[in-house]
Amino acid sequence: MKEKTITIPYEIKMADSFVTRLKGLMFRREPIKNEGLWIIPCNSVHMFFMNFSIDVVLLNKQNEVVKVYHNLQPWRATKPVKSAYSTLELPAGSINQFGIHIGSIIHC
Q1: Residue 27's pLDDT is what?
Q2: How large is the greatest C-alpha to C-alpha distance in the chain, in angstroms?
Q3: In the chain, at which residue ranges do the beta strands (DSSP E only) sit?
């Protein structure tokens, strides 16, 4: 059975250098809205120095969802996911809003 491809209708910024991956969304004052951050490579995230919650979607190299975290709170961290290659950080509630689940294919 072919999984449904989900297109994220937000402006997605790429974090693919050491500096952009390290900074991520840290120190932003306001929650993200209608935007996201795609961190490549990345198989876990931390929420240190974050001021708001986000949804986190971990993807393999084929952009298939391998793990999701709903409403990840500031000062939390995820365990590394061996099968994950990249991480998509989205506004809290996006996973439910777009029907994202393990096995979905994400297009940004």
Answers
A1: 75
A2: 42
A3: 5-7, 11-15, 35-39, 54-59, 65-72, 86-91, 105-107
Enter the DSSP assignment of 96: H
CATH of the domain at 79: 2.60.120.1140
pTM: 0.92
Beta strand 35-39 with 86-91 is antiparallel
Contact 56, 84 (CB under 8 A): no
pLDDT digits (tens, 9 = 90+) for 9-54: 999 999 998 888 878 887 788 999 999 999 999 999 999 999 999 9
- Strand duo 11-15 + 35-39: pairing: parallel
| Whether 76 contacts 61, CB under 8 Å | no
Number of domains in the chain: 1
Q: The domain containing residue 69 runs over which residues?
A: 5-107
